[in-house]
Amino acid sequence: MSVEFLWRIPVHGDGRRAHTAHSRGEWNQLQPGQTPKRVAPQFNDAKFAYYDYIEQVAKAADIVGFHGALIPAFPHTEEPWVLASALARQTKNLRLLIAIQPWFINPAYASQMAASLQRLSNGRVEWNVISGGGGSQQKSYGDFINHDQRYARTSEFLEFVKGYSHHAPFDYDGNFFRVEQGGLHYPMNQYPLPRLWLAGASEAALHVAGQHADIHLTWAEPVAQQKQVIEHAKAFFAQYYPDKKVRFGIRIDILARPTYEQAVQELKQMHESVDLQQQGFARGDSESVGAKRQKALSEGKQFDDLFISANFWAGMSNVRGGPNGILVGSYEQVAERLQAYIEIGVEHFILASNPHLEEAYRVGEEVLPLLKSVP
């Protein structure tokens, strides 16, 4: 089994506190008169910009040997294609996992953009294809179609991209996309398609993953529950797509320190910095099955109650949005928990920790080398 570890690029500010009090970049929403100490530049600083910090994070991940980096996409963040293009020239080996939604871009143009970035990066482009969680966030993008239609659109988008990239002249006539005599030509058609990471726990999502995914990605749950998620997906793929090899990945945060007590104390300090009145990430109308499972992990619980299994704390969505899970403990304990995920079939990890720069070095130097060799 070949195991890969990716790092997360902080596209919405960074720091040691909750997202509403980030001190790296100008992303936190300050009250009038508030001027927190800055340790990284704002966008309009004369000599440096927030991108310069993002570049440092990507280089740190590259230096310590992470296989790649996720560049997320949200309505309120930097745009991942733009960042990926810039980071491709500042890194050497780091694979660039770009979060995209098929609603954002025509598949013909997406094919051209991917081919150009493959040329620029020497083949390091990957896609985290997101069908969208629905609700108010999806409508804020101008997207109003329902859950199952979004996944049907994703499937068409990927069929289109596969044909357009390497099979000119290419015709396609679907429910969402159409092209006549299109396709990339030499030298743009000489580069591989991005490796595809697809998420989703619904039946519609699993059908799309079974057809197209290289890696089926989920937000992490405690190991016993994660095993159930993987076994369910494996059974589904075996039934409907027996000839397709799909690997499994999880997205989870890490807070590792020399001792368990130190790690918990830092987590508590970060949790206490959360402003419950300014949770810009809070959403209760998502249609995502996975998001609903994450919400259930932390519903109505206090800090200590959120330790729901060994070294697994389920309250991170209040701190920085997104998935709830974070592994908390000593270097050895966190490595043991990661090993447990590997043993149930997880081969790809997207890790993160605030602040992302220092923690990329810490996790890469102190935690990952403790993992056992994997057969």
Automatic annotation (TrEMBL):
The keyword Isomerase does not apply. InterPro entries: Luciferase-like_dom (IPR011251), Luciferase-like_sf (IPR036661), SsuD_RutA_monooxygenase (IPR050172). GO terms for biological process: alkanesulfonate catabolic process. It comes from the Bacteria. Keywords: Flavoprotein, FMN, Monooxygenase, Oxidoreductase. Residues 42-348 form the Luciferase-like domain. One of its GO terms (molecular function) is alkanesulfonate monooxygenase activity. Residues 17-38 are annotated as: Disordered. The keyword Lyase does not apply. This is Alkanesulfonate monooxygenase. It comes from Acinetobacter puyangensis.
